[in-house]
Sequence to fold (117 residues):
Amino acid sequence: MSKAARTLKVYSYVMLVFGVLLVARPQVLSPGAEGLELGVIRSLGAMLIVLAYYYRVAASNELTAFFHASVVARFGLAAFQVAAVKLGWLNKNSLGGAALDALSAIWTLTALKRDAR
Fold:
């Protein structure tokens, strides 16, 4: 398994854990949510579980194009989260997720460069 594939494999497990947590215990990551909000949060958790599966399959099959696309997507998501906090759409706790996404994108990008050598 390439270094880049390994980064996506690890990231898929992180997404899986957060997805399961959002489905099973949405209040842990979204205190104060209730009613319909909990259903939306659980649905997002289920989508995260599906994405985790995609990442795992991509890593297992060395889908390098997906690795490159994931770097761009994770940087974009991190930028969106920072902007959403500044606009008041998300609370400051979301910056932890932005940092995780940006750092994992840097890790994958670095691994892609190492694998290319």
